[in-house]
Amino acid sequence: MSTCSPLPADSFVLSKAKKMKSKTNKIFKWAPSILVTLIVGAGSFMKLTAQPQLVEVFSKTGLLPYMKVLGAAELVFVSLFLWSRTLRIGFFLLTGYFGGAMAIELSQHIFFIMPAVILALVWLAAWLRDNSLFGVAHNTQKTIAAH
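and the corresponding structure tokens:
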């Protein structure tokens, strides 16, 4: 009895299935990053164009003179976050920025949920794209500590 080798059609189907799985994983990994980009980009646009609802909030917090600078900073931070080579610095800058936004909104008794949601999305996106940021080691090698 001879052993069966996969038919060319079978290997074609298997390679297509692997490509689809890889594409699905890539979409899954990048979806939160794209969502963060859209949200932060929209907020940045609103700050740069001095939308009335933001002018009111920034006046209340005393940050109106810095609104456009903060809008430009958001664009820079999210751009750094999107580029794989600068993901780490973009992640830390966005974390600091939205952590600060939450602190200011809490101190002014403003509803702080939006910066918290954006920050959670930033962390999810970063974890999906590079979980080594969170101390998750890819190395399975065991080490023995000397006593």
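(Above: one complete record from the training split.) Helices lie at 8-48, 52-61, 67-82, 87-107, 113-129.
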